[in-house]
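seq/struct pair 1
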Amino acid sequence: MEKKSEEFERTLTEPNLLTLVCRWLESMPVLQDNTIWDQYRRAADLWLEESTETDISCLEKRRDLMDSLFKCDQHKRLVDQGNRKFTHQALKGAIILRTYRHEKGYALANRILDSLVDIDTMLSKWRFI
Protein backbone atom coordinates (compact mmCIF):
# COMPACT_ATOMS: atom_id res chain seq x y z
CA MET A 1 0.00 0.00 0.00
CA GLU A 2 2.88 2.34 0.80
CA LYS A 3 4.30 1.80 -2.68
CA LYS A 4 1.04 3.00 -4.27
CA SER A 5 1.09 6.06 -2.03
CA GLU A 6 4.66 6.83 -3.12
CA GLU A 7 3.70 6.42 -6.76
CA PHE A 8 0.77 8.77 -6.30
CA GLU A 9 2.97 11.38 -4.60
CA ARG A 10 5.50 11.09 -7.42
CA THR A 11 2.83 11.76 -10.04
CA LEU A 12 1.95 15.01 -8.28
CA THR A 13 5.47 16.33 -8.85
CA GLU A 14 5.91 15.12 -12.42
CA PRO A 15 4.86 17.32 -15.35
CA ASN A 16 1.36 16.66 -16.70
CA LEU A 17 0.60 15.76 -20.30
CA LEU A 18 -0.26 19.35 -21.25
CA THR A 19 3.12 20.57 -20.01
CA LEU A 20 4.92 17.82 -21.92
CA VAL A 21 3.00 18.53 -25.14
CA CYS A 22 3.79 22.25 -24.78
CA ARG A 23 7.49 21.47 -24.33
CA TRP A 24 7.41 19.22 -27.38
CA LEU A 25 5.73 21.86 -29.55
CA GLU A 26 8.05 24.59 -28.25
CA SER A 27 11.08 22.51 -29.19
CA MET A 28 10.24 22.30 -32.88
CA PRO A 29 13.42 23.27 -34.76
CA VAL A 30 11.45 25.35 -37.27
CA LEU A 31 10.60 27.80 -34.46
CA GLN A 32 14.28 28.73 -34.11
CA ASP A 33 14.01 30.59 -37.40
CA ASN A 34 11.15 33.08 -37.68
CA THR A 35 11.03 32.87 -41.48
CA ILE A 36 8.06 30.48 -41.65
CA TRP A 37 6.20 32.32 -38.89
CA ASP A 38 6.78 35.66 -40.64
CA GLN A 39 5.45 34.17 -43.90
CA TYR A 40 2.40 32.87 -42.04
CA ARG A 41 1.77 36.32 -40.57
CA ARG A 42 2.04 38.01 -43.98
CA ALA A 43 -0.39 35.48 -45.43
CA ALA A 44 -2.82 36.09 -42.55
CA ASP A 45 -2.56 39.87 -42.99
CA LEU A 46 -3.18 39.52 -46.73
CA TRP A 47 -6.17 37.26 -46.05
CA LEU A 48 -7.65 39.88 -43.73
CA GLU A 49 -7.01 42.68 -46.23
CA GLU A 50 -8.66 40.74 -49.05
CA SER A 51 -11.58 39.64 -46.90
CA THR A 52 -14.93 40.32 -48.49
CA GLU A 53 -16.57 40.36 -45.08
CA THR A 54 -19.15 43.14 -45.02
CA ASP A 55 -19.90 42.82 -41.32
CA ILE A 56 -17.34 45.13 -39.70
CA SER A 57 -17.75 43.56 -36.24
CA CYS A 58 -17.01 40.11 -37.68
CA LEU A 59 -13.93 41.43 -39.47
CA GLU A 60 -12.73 43.09 -36.25
CA LYS A 61 -13.19 39.81 -34.36
CA ARG A 62 -11.07 38.05 -36.97
CA ARG A 63 -8.41 40.75 -36.73
CA ASP A 64 -8.40 40.49 -32.91
CA LEU A 65 -8.04 36.71 -33.16
CA MET A 66 -5.12 37.03 -35.56
CA ASP A 67 -3.49 39.66 -33.34
CA SER A 68 -3.76 37.27 -30.40
CA LEU A 69 -1.87 34.67 -32.43
CA PHE A 70 0.95 36.99 -33.38
CA LYS A 71 1.27 39.25 -30.34
CA CYS A 72 2.67 37.45 -27.33
CA ASP A 73 1.21 39.89 -24.78
CA GLN A 74 -2.32 39.42 -26.14
CA HIS A 75 -1.88 35.65 -26.11
CA LYS A 76 -0.61 35.76 -22.52
CA ARG A 77 -3.67 37.75 -21.46
CA LEU A 78 -5.91 35.02 -22.92
CA VAL A 79 -3.89 32.37 -21.07
CA ASP A 80 -4.22 34.34 -17.83
CA GLN A 81 -7.99 34.55 -18.39
CA GLY A 82 -8.12 30.77 -18.87
CA ASN A 83 -9.13 31.02 -22.54
CA ARG A 84 -5.95 29.33 -23.81
CA LYS A 85 -3.71 26.65 -22.36
CA PHE A 86 -0.63 26.52 -24.61
CA THR A 87 2.29 28.89 -24.30
CA HIS A 88 2.70 31.30 -27.20
CA GLN A 89 5.67 29.31 -28.55
CA ALA A 90 3.73 26.02 -28.28
CA LEU A 91 0.76 27.58 -30.08
CA LYS A 92 3.06 28.70 -32.88
CA GLY A 93 4.42 25.15 -33.11
CA ALA A 94 0.90 23.69 -33.29
CA ILE A 95 -0.14 26.16 -36.00
CA ILE A 96 2.93 25.36 -38.09
CA LEU A 97 2.30 21.63 -37.62
CA ARG A 98 -1.28 21.99 -38.84
CA THR A 99 -0.32 24.25 -41.72
CA TYR A 100 2.36 21.90 -43.04
CA ARG A 101 0.68 18.64 -41.99
CA HIS A 102 0.96 17.15 -45.49
CA GLU A 103 4.69 17.82 -45.74
CA LYS A 104 6.99 14.87 -45.11
CA GLY A 105 8.69 16.31 -42.02
CA TYR A 106 5.45 17.28 -40.29
CA ALA A 107 3.06 14.42 -41.09
CA LEU A 108 3.97 12.12 -38.19
CA ALA A 109 4.04 14.93 -35.63
CA ASN A 110 0.65 16.07 -36.88
CA ARG A 111 -0.75 12.55 -36.51
CA ILE A 112 0.48 12.50 -32.91
CA LEU A 113 -1.24 15.83 -32.27
CA ASP A 114 -4.44 14.54 -33.91
CA SER A 115 -4.34 11.44 -31.70
CA LEU A 116 -3.96 13.58 -28.57
CA VAL A 117 -6.97 15.67 -29.62
CA ASP A 118 -8.97 12.47 -30.24
CA ILE A 119 -8.03 11.13 -26.80
CA ASP A 120 -9.05 14.41 -25.18
CA THR A 121 -12.39 14.33 -27.00
CA MET A 122 -13.07 10.73 -25.96
CA LEU A 123 -12.17 11.46 -22.33
CA SER A 124 -14.51 14.46 -22.34
CA LYS A 125 -17.35 12.37 -23.75
CA TRP A 126 -16.69 9.56 -21.28
CA ARG A 127 -16.69 12.04 -18.38
CA PHE A 128 -20.25 13.11 -19.20
CA ILE A 129 -21.76 9.68 -19.82
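seq/struct pair 2
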Amino acid sequence: MVVPKALRSELGISGSAELEVVARDGVIELAVADAPARIDDHQGQPVIVTDGPMEPLTVEGVRAAIYRVRR
Protein backbone atom coordinates (compact mmCIF):
# COMPACT_ATOMS: atom_id res chain seq x y z
CA MET A 1 0.00 0.00 0.00
CA VAL A 2 1.40 3.41 -0.94
CA VAL A 3 0.69 6.46 1.23
CA PRO A 4 1.34 9.72 -0.67
CA LYS A 5 4.40 11.69 0.49
CA ALA A 6 2.34 14.81 1.29
CA LEU A 7 0.10 12.77 3.61
CA ARG A 8 3.10 11.03 5.25
CA SER A 9 4.69 14.43 5.85
CA GLU A 10 1.49 15.83 7.34
CA LEU A 11 1.24 12.86 9.70
CA GLY A 12 4.94 12.87 10.53
CA ILE A 13 5.60 9.31 9.38
CA SER A 14 8.50 7.98 7.33
CA GLY A 15 8.41 5.36 4.61
CA SER A 16 9.65 2.75 7.09
CA ALA A 17 6.95 3.43 9.71
CA GLU A 18 4.83 0.49 10.81
CA LEU A 19 1.09 0.94 10.42
CA GLU A 20 -1.78 -0.87 12.11
CA VAL A 21 -4.62 -1.82 9.77
CA VAL A 22 -8.15 -2.16 11.15
CA ALA A 23 -11.43 -2.89 9.37
CA ARG A 24 -14.34 -1.11 11.02
CA ASP A 25 -17.87 -0.72 9.66
CA GLY A 26 -16.75 -1.45 6.10
CA VAL A 27 -13.87 1.06 6.26
CA ILE A 28 -10.15 0.34 6.37
CA GLU A 29 -8.36 2.49 8.97
CA LEU A 30 -4.60 2.96 9.06
CA ALA A 31 -2.83 4.19 12.19
CA VAL A 32 0.80 4.56 13.10
CA ALA A 33 1.70 1.58 15.29
CA ASP A 34 2.68 2.35 18.87
CA ALA A 35 6.40 2.05 19.50
CA PRO A 36 7.29 -0.48 22.20
CA ALA A 37 8.93 1.51 24.99
CA ARG A 38 9.69 1.46 28.68
CA ILE A 39 10.58 4.02 31.33
CA ASP A 40 14.12 3.77 32.70
CA ASP A 41 15.86 5.71 35.42
CA HIS A 42 18.70 7.89 34.13
CA GLN A 43 20.59 9.75 36.85
CA GLY A 44 17.46 9.90 38.98
CA GLN A 45 15.21 11.10 36.14
CA PRO A 46 12.62 9.03 34.25
CA VAL A 47 13.53 8.55 30.59
CA ILE A 48 11.44 6.85 27.89
CA VAL A 49 13.54 4.27 26.05
CA THR A 50 12.32 2.54 22.89
CA ASP A 51 12.99 -1.13 22.28
CA GLY A 52 14.19 -0.45 18.73
CA PRO A 53 15.66 2.30 16.59
CA MET A 54 13.49 5.34 15.98
CA GLU A 55 13.96 8.63 14.23
CA PRO A 56 14.80 11.40 16.72
CA LEU A 57 12.14 13.95 17.61
CA THR A 58 12.50 17.34 16.01
CA VAL A 59 11.12 20.66 17.19
CA GLU A 60 8.99 20.78 14.03
CA GLY A 61 7.65 17.28 14.65
CA VAL A 62 6.67 18.08 18.23
CA ARG A 63 4.96 21.31 17.17
CA ALA A 64 3.07 19.48 14.42
CA ALA A 65 1.90 16.83 16.91
CA ILE A 66 0.72 19.49 19.37
CA TYR A 67 -1.11 21.30 16.56
CA ARG A 68 -2.84 18.07 15.43
CA VAL A 69 -3.99 17.29 18.98
CA ARG A 70 -5.30 20.80 19.60
CA ARG A 71 -7.36 20.92 16.38
